[in-house]
Backbone:
């Protein structure tokens, strides 16, 4: 009898599961949604108000503004949280890191509308302050993921790295950060999605974006306008989430 | 004692917020090329002691010497690149290939790439893993035993004179552990590294150690000696308790069958005639004859009754020989075989399986007696030596 013991069994290298067909489903689905939306809107007789809102120029502007709000705020969030997360997980910061993590958890339950309106009251309205609000709102979840990502690295790896003579910086660069990447990216992905939704509220503070279309639809009681804005915002959220998912797969270190 | 490779002088470690020190005033010399085992109950400070050698734990006071150089205050990262380090959890980096894992220290030392490549292949060969097959794998694709081998290869990568091993075989199943221990001893017989090895398992200590330091609380050395001496002349009750009640049995692990004079046993060849064999057997006063085949390999035990029975060929009668040992086997192995044998002796054969003699209870008793006496004599002469040291001052 030839039983295959684990030692003899062919050990297959675990490869990153990157297959192009798997990534095509979502774009195709989102494309179909957009086409359906377009056909629905074009079959309807648009009145004056609707025609003013539902044209290529307005939609493009809203879409681009929205993308800018999300993109700029997410970039700032990543730029701030990753270094801060690194600092807060160093041994000297251990006394405060637990408190920060607890605050980060509380921060997530603060309503986004509140944050944006509060900021608008405190400062002023416009794109810049909407970005500040979005940064504040997405800051804590990404910070939390950065910290958790770094803290979940197996202490035995740090011990063996230190024991072999890696400096703290080398250890961070070659071991800790690569191993934290999946968790940090998951945080950024969440922040992106949250920001697409929260950015619609930016319309209240004159920051532009798809929110302008949505709220015009609500205020002026035009269902087609509301629907168009809402569907486009959802499509944008799903598309960004999908792209972030691909980025996660590509950037996840091999061997994990 | 050979020249000390590692010397610890009056090392003390106090962790902040603790009243009692973890290690108090420890002085220890580790001779070059030997395996020194730090063994003791958990919490005795043995791991802390070991981690002070590569300064993962910075001593509160005292000095550390490596190859005669005071390394207590040199750059710790550079010091650690000179000292191999193996831990129980192995700690292979999961996102790096086996090659990259083993290349860690050479890369820190900025070796040229071709040299690193050659070294990694050499080390994989050394630990019995085919480089072409394993080089580009990730740790997740290895078994526990293979990972520990890579861990040892990684610790050896920059050919450090000293290795620190913290319960390296602790988390491995018993069968694999035994194999890895034997492989490691074979490796060490070629490499002759100076090794500090931490374990809580006294049997592992006896098997692996050239010298054993038995530590009690605060890393105080209860006894620092060869396994033979520790087993034969435990310094005090603590050591005796730690060894356990089977010191004499454990001591049998230290002696090899080949080092003792074997007993001859009456043998017979398959073509001999039965009445002559019966006469030989009667004359020998033994209970059975050992039947050898044409190549001289033991085949059957023949009792008088078997020889009197006519008909069947000699090679078909009697009892099979099931207790065989080779000269490299320990007396403990031999005793175990003896207990399995129907005749009460273990048959010693060489590598080709050819009969060379037998070993019986008498040999073991005599060996145990000799070991006990020589250890006793050694401890007496040690006492005399320390008395002589003291007397001039008196």
Residues:
């Amino acid at each position: 009898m030839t039983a295959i013991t684990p030692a003899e069994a062919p050990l297959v290298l675990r490869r990153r599961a990157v297959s192009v067909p798997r990534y095509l489903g979502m774009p195709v689905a989102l494309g179909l949604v957009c086409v359906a939306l377009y056909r629905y809107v074009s079959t309807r007789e648009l009145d004056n108000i609707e025609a003013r809102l539902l044209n290529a120029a307005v939609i493009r502007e809203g879409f681009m503004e929205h993308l800018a709000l999300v993109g700029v705020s997410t970039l700032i969030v990543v730029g701030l949280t990753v270094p801060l997360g690194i600092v807060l997980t160093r041994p000297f910061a251990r006394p405060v890191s637990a408190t920060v993590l607890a605050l980060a958890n509380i921060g997530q339950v603060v309503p986004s509308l509140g944050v944006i309106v509060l900021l608008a009251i405190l400062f002023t309205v416009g794109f810049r302050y909407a970005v500040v609000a979005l940064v504040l709102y997405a800051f804590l979840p990404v910070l939390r993921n950065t910290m958790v990502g770094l803290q979940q690295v197996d202490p035995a790896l740090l011990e063996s790295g230190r024991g072999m003579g890696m400096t703290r910086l080398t250890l961070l660069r070659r071991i800790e950060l690569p191993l934290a990447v999946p968790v940090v990216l998951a945080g950024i992905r969440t922040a992106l999605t949250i920001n697409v939704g929260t950015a619609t509220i930016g319309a209240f503070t004159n920051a532009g974006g798809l929110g302008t279309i949505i709220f015009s639809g609500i205020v002026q009681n035009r269902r087609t306008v509301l629907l168009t804005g809402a569907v486009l915002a959802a499509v944008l959220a799903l598309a960004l989430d999908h792209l972030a998912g691909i980025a996660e797969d590509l950037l996840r270190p091999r061997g994990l | 004692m050979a020249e000390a490779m590692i010397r610890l002088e009056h090392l003390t470690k106090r962790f902040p917020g603790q009243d009692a020190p973890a290690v108090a005033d420890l002085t220890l010399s580790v001779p070059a090329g030997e395996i020194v085992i730090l063994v003791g109950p958990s919490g005795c400070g043995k791991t802390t002691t070991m981690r002070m050698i590569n300064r993962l734990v910075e001593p509160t006071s005292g000095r550390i010497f490596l190859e005669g150089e005071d390394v207590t205050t040199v750059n710790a990262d550079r010091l650690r690149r000179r000292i191999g380090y193996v831990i129980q959890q192995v700690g292979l980096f999961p996102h790096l290939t086996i090659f990259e894992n083993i290349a860690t220290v050479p890369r820190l030392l900025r070796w040229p790439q071709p040299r690193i490549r050659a070294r990694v292949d050499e080390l994989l060969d050394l630990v019995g893993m085919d480089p072409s097959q394993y080089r580009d794998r990730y740790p997740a694709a290895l078994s526990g035993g293979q990972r520990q081998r890579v861990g040892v290869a990684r610790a050896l990568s920059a050919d450090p004179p000293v290795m620190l091993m913290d319960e390296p075989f602790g988390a491995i199943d018993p069968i694999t552990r035994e194999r890895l221990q034997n492989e490691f001893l074979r490796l060490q017989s070629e490499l002759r590294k100076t090794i500090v090895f931490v374990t809580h398992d006294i049997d592992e200590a006896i098997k692996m150690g050239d010298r054993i330091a038995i530590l009690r609380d605060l890393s105080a050395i209860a006894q620092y000696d060869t396994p033979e001496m520790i087993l034969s002349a435990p310094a005090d009750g603590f050591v005796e308790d730690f060894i356990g009640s089977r010191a004499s049995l454990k001591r049998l692990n230290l002696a090899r069958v080949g080092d003792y004079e074997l007993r001859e046993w009456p043998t017979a060849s398959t073509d001999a005639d039965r009445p002559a064999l019966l006469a030989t057997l009667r004359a020998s006063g033994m209970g059975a004859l050992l039947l050898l085949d044409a190549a001289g390999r033991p085949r059957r035990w023949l009792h008088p009754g078997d020889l009197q029975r006519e008909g069947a060929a000699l090679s078909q009668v009697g009892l099979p020989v099931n207790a065989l040992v080779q000269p490299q086997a320990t007396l403990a192995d031999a005793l175990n075989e003896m207990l399995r044998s129907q005749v009460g002796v273990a048959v010693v054969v060489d590598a080709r399986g050819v009969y060379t003699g037998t070993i019986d209870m008498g040999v073991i008793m005599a060996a145990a007696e000799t070991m006990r006496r020589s250890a006793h004599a050694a401890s007496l002469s040690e006492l005399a030596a320390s008395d002589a040291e003291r007397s001039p001052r008196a």
Notes: Residues 168-201 of chain A form the longest helix (34 residues). DSSP finds ten helices and no strands in chain A. Chain A touches chain B through 27 residues (CB under 8 Å).
